[in-house]
Amino acid sequence: MPIIELATHINAPIAKCYDLARSIDMHVDSMRQSGESSVGGRTGGLIELGETVTWRAKHFGIWQTLTAKVTEMEPYNHFTDEMVKGAFKNFRHEHYFYAINNQTLMKDIFMFDAPLGFLGIIANFLFLKQYMRKLLEQRNLEIKKVAEAPLPPKGEALAT
């Protein structure tokens, strides 16, 4: 089972980072390159414990759907989402948040198994693990950018 571990330092409060990480809207914005959209379950706002979201996105030239469920949640410290239906054999994405001097360390642990048995193992080795790492890194950079953006002057709308 491939495991991807990432650590992202964000100059923003832990609550802001935690909420951005579980924001359906932030996820859609951060996955623009794959045309990702939320098409079922929770389709906007902040996902909560026990809720599901179904994503539709184009990866490797093929439109795919994947449903994930939040299976663990400890507000502002941790949440986990797991695939309940989709292209992977399975996946589990653990999100951890640590407050360090008014900043946040956001850690991801993403574990997955590709389908197709031995062919899936070859795909993991050749390209899938690196592809998933890049998607997660891109998402984390977007979260960091939004979290660290200065607040607009009072009375102006926030842009995400």
Write the layout of secondary structure elements.
Layout: E1 3-10, H1 14-21, H2 24-30, E2 37-41, E3 52-59, E4 62-74, E5 78-85, E6 90-100, E7 103-113, H3 117-148
Antiparallel strand pairs: 1-7, 2-3, 3-4, 4-5, 5-6, 6-7
What can be said about this structure in brief?
This protein is α+β, with helices and mostly antiparallel strands and 160 residues long. It has helices at residues 14-21, 24-30, 117-148, and strands at 3-10, 37-41, 52-59, 62-74, 78-85, 90-100, 103-113.
What pattern of helices and strands is seen along the backbone?
EHHEEEEEEH
Helix segment tally: 3
Q: What is the average of the pLDDT values?
A: 90
Low-confidence stretches: none
Number-wise, the strands total 7
Spatial shape:
globular
Strand content: 35-45%
Per CATH, which architecture?
2-Layer Sandwich
Sheet having the most strands: 7 strands, antiparallel
**How would you name the CATH homologous superfamily?**
START domain
What Rg, in angstroms, do the CA atoms define? Answer: 16 Å
